[in-house]
Amino acid sequence: MRKVERLPQPESLKNHSARWTKELMDEINKQGTYAKVADSFKTKYRQDDVKETLEKMYNQHCCYCESVVGTSSYGRIEHLRPKSLPQFYQYAFEWDNLHWCCEVCNTSYKKANWDFENPILDPAKDDIDKFLKLNLTTGKYEEIGNNKRARTTIEHTGMNRESLVKARRRWIILFLKGYKVHQKCGNEKEFCDSWDKLKEDMDYPSLYDKLIEFVK
Ligand SMILES: [Zn+2]
Fold this sequence. Notes:
Layout lengths: L10 H21 L7 H4 L5 H10 L17 E5 L18 E5 H8 L21 E3 L6 E3 L4 H10 L4 H23 L3 H11 L6 H11 L1
Antiparallel strand pairs: 1-2, 3-4
Helix pairs in contact: 6-7, 6-8
The chain binds zinc ion.
């Protein structure tokens, strides 16, 4: 997970989110439960400009695991505060609550998990590197200073699941071996520069920032 800058609100939300929210809340009251409300009321955030802006904001990466979204999984519009919890019905079309996510993080891990006392970190609001650190030996994220929100983030997003840890470890080993070879030839700076240029097209871009910082 890494910090991103939130882009300006897409036009569709700017123009319609207040009305959509009112219609949704009215329908929930009418039906008595959220479960009985038709999807057409709940999914109006699925607009092309919302999807395009979120993809751009996250540079195609999942907000949680940082995998490139779209190669092996579809991208999903993610509600950080779960839209199915009564406390958050009114945030279904709220721009500040929307993020970009891979299918695995969205449907198998984050789901409707929420800790009201220590909510997960928000990549567009929180300074992620002050809460979480990546251990370059184990490939696992660790909370800094036993921070509870960092712990919730690790638990609710599954960011230390075996498949991700193994993938990170592979890239760490590859990078460090490559660095050593280039260091012997005296062109380690060019090596780091090329990774820096490539990182946004790869999974886990913030991993390479940390590796480049580590070998400096
Ligand atoms: Zn993901």
